[in-house]
Amino acid sequence: MTHADWADVRERLSRPAAASGVDTVFGAGSHGWTLEPPLEADALADVEAQLRIELPGEYRSFLLQAGRGGAGPAYGLFPLRRVNGRWQWEGDGADLTDLDTLDQPFPHVEAFNPADGMPAPPDEEDFDSTEEFNAAEDAYWERHDAVVYDPRHSIGLLYLCHLGCALREALVISGPARGQMWANDTADDEGFRPLCDDDGKPLGFARWYRRWLDEAEEQVLHGAHPSASSSSGTYGDE
């Protein structure tokens, strides 16, 4: 299992938090540069027993050393909390994680779009009346949404953050891409894709988080602009 050392994270977060211009970083107003307390080892064991999984090592060590959620890419990491005796992640889109199927494999290793192969939407010129067109259009989008937003596409994915505009990013928990970060861009009709570094290598949790932290520090402390590849600077509105 791959682990990571997170001993420096809280100190690094404190520096931009104390600087002027801190709110220029996308999503900072939401997470406030603050991490929730880490999990105790017995609590993490309880989480994994409940979900019948072992979390990927980099994220697992983050929960134990850094925090259970808070400051992070985009609007921040969904916090892991115990609610009514059951562990779950909370946030806008956290409910896309199916806790009952996290132990089942996410089968993909390459980008895919559930909408591929679907017919084009109906054309109003092909109908004799507005009523017929409206009925056909409603039926089409009902079928489209049933295919594109089928929760089975997210089996094995742990959603960790949202970027606004219904765009989310997730950690693969089970399957051949285990440990990789993926984007769910179905709200933009772009489907699912692995998040990659500049060299095209898929991002694991540690590189995904630290790339955001590096760029956030540069932006706040040195006035640098976020790169085009940064998830925290690409999508959504404050």
Provide a descriptive summary of the structure in words.
By secondary structure, the protein is of the alpha+beta class. The chain is built from six helices and six strands, in the order ααααββαββββα. The strands form two sheets. A four-stranded antiparallel beta sheet has the order 3-4-5-6, with no helix packed on it. A two-stranded antiparallel ribbon has the order 1-2. The longest helix has 19 residues. It is globular.
Order of helices and strands: HHHHEEHEEEEH
- Mean of residue pLDDT? 91
Strand order of the largest sheet: 3-4-5-6
Global shape? globular
Number of strands: 6
Q: What is the overall number of helices?
A: 6
Biggest sheet details: 4 strands, antiparallel
How far the N terminus sits from the C terminus, by CA atoms, comes to: 37 Å
Strand content: 5-15%
Considering DSSP H and I runs of 4 or more, what fraction of the residues is helical? 25-40%
What class would the helix/strand composition place it in?
A: alpha+beta
Radius of gyration: 20 Å
Itemize the secondary structure elements and their pairings:
Elements: H1 9-18, H2 28-31, H3 41-51, H4 57-65, E1 80-83, E2 86-89, H5 130-148, E3 157-162, E4 168-172, E5 181-184, E6 192-194, H6 205-222
Antiparallel strand pairs: 1-2, 3-4, 4-5, 5-6
Helix pairs in contact: 1-6
